[in-house]
Amino acid sequence: MDFATLASQLFIGLSRGMIFFIVSAGLTLIFGVLRITNFAHGSLYMLGAFIAYSISIFFGQGPNGFWLALLVAPIAVMLISLVIERGLLRFIYNQEHLMQMLLTYSLVLIAGDLVKIIWGTEFKSMNIPTILRGSFNLWGASLPSYNAFLLIVGPIVALGLWLFLSRTHLGKICRATATDREMVDILGIDSTRVFALVFAMGGWLAGLGGALIAPTTTISMGMDANIIIYAFLIVVIGGLGNVWGALISSIIMGVGEALGILFIPGVAIIIPYVIAGVLLIIKPSGLLKSAW
Amino acid sequence: MVSMVGKIRSRSSNLIKIGSMLLIIALLVTGCGNSSTTTADKKTIKVGIVDTYTGGAAVYAKDSLDGFKLAVKEIAAKGGPTIEFVTRDDEFKPDKSTSWAKELVMKENVDFLAGTTNSAASLAVSQFAKENKVPFIDWGGMSDKVTGAAGHRYVFSTLPNTAIIGKAGAVQLSKTPYKKIWLAGSDYEYGHSVISNLWSNLTALEPDVNKMGETWWRVGETDFTPYINAIRSAKPDVLVVGTGGADMVAFMKALKATGLAQEIPVWAHTSYDPATLRPLGDQAPENVLGTNPYLSNYPDTAENKAFVEAFKKEYNREPAAFALYGYMGGEFLGQAIKKAGSTDKEKIIDAMEGLVIDTPVGKATLRKEDHQVAIPMTYGVIAKVDGKIAATDLHTLSPEEIMPSIDEIQKLRAKQ
What we know:
The complex is a heterodimer of chains A (292) and B (416). Chain A is mostly helical and 292 residues long. Chain A has 11 helices and 2 strands, in the order H-H-H-H-E-E-H-H-H-H-H-H-H. Chain A starts with a helix and ends in a 10-residue tail after the last helix. Chain B is of the alpha/beta class and 416 residues long. Chain B is built from 16 helices and 16 strands. The chains are: A mainly alpha (292), B alpha/beta (416).
């Protein structure tokens, strides 16, 4: 084991964590503010990937298609989320959590079938633009360019979220709603509007995650179920509803998994669960303060 | 989650509410299983197909179903026996497969069961078939246990299983100079079974091969770079991979993106299958070895051309391997009914044992002893030909070279 391998594995683990963060940040925001366990979050991520694929195909798999897909697919998913929130979710905010789970779970089934009807069952693949192909060397460690790109996008998203939540009026209302919804209502702010905004933002993040992962993998049905397990683990470890907790646990998960693959490849598959188990034993309430 | 319990005031009524909701959902879901029954005629044989029509594996189930439908149509057109069928979606869940199998046998009165892309589902339905004496044609699950250790009178397989795939891969690799081998794959039945069969056959053919290490990833892994990076640092002569479906495409893509295949040759079953190469386009890696039971342009024979033509005419796409498996399932059944001259299940089973039919890949035999289909297998390597990525250096292995011997099967079954 040389230093270069270890370093490049660390980089790759970090970039893996960035995708986890972008998806789970959306989930945890919705958790924190709406108090809804949104099973359909993985479906929104899958939709993001499929929409990105369609946009890319429309532009002949060229570089323009990729950048446009990165811009448009998350917005499209955001609009879908807005329709879901205004059309369905807002009627069940006062229901029990189980009802909300049933509703979001039914959305998972519907989205799965919709994707099959629209895009068919065949495996799909989207090209990485030429500029982000191949690898480059960083102090002797080789890192695929696309992973480096993810390492740039992830922190930008985190910074954007931080600026929004702590520096804008709207962001402050979001945080206030997460802490005490009744108080926000008493102050004369329509909290369901805040809910719509946050759900749409969560959808945008899921769509962005899907669009970012699309060029590196197979775009297929079943993507939703694969990400949602990670996203839930990360959200629970980080502290329900805490975006920074999600960031920290995403990085722990990504790097932990990458190192596990390097040192104990035969059993690497259990590492996320071992990490989750250990962290929850040490801090059952999550790494950072839960919004619940 | 914790507050959830506290908020439920009258628990029992809520449970009833939720229970009824679940029931409604379950009923809605069952509605998805489309059926195509015609009037019940006692002289027709009815096949109940349980397969995965939603999720990542749906592409295979769709192909095998279309292949089967084509066979049924052709048999009827030739004045042969009429075969009816109904389908049920198991969503890749073995427990659902068995409950659908029960439903099909008890409510739909099917004579035969078929399908199951999920290997665990194949084994579960096979067990049900054995207990209830309903013959089951597996054209989706590749587990070697189906017609191997767990085989019995009521189960047939019309696709090459992991024992055959592993043996074919071992024969191909034994023709290469590679000695230091890294094994990797998806952490489920298919991945482990292909790799362990390949490894045991390869060590028998070439005792001086050396296993450097193993890597297993979860099914549905989206990012292969950490795995590839770790394997690259170990510098094996060849990387042998047991993965399938959507993971195969993602893995091949990562091979190209990381440039691993330029440094280390890779072997994977179905690496040059159109289902893998087509979505990859110019992003497919070269220098990847592999085996494949069927290609629409290989073997280049009149029979295969006719099959491709008929399939294209019916479904407007080229048939892939699973289309052939479903097609063979239908053909074996149709010809067995004809041969038996009866619609009695036991007589049809007798007729199916050892039955030889003409298929797009040549003669196919349903072996009498283990009910496993014997067809040839191709092997080759992915390379650029005239600027296009394709399978090259294709060779055919005869069934005799790749089938596990009857002795082996009998030993396995005796152990059970």
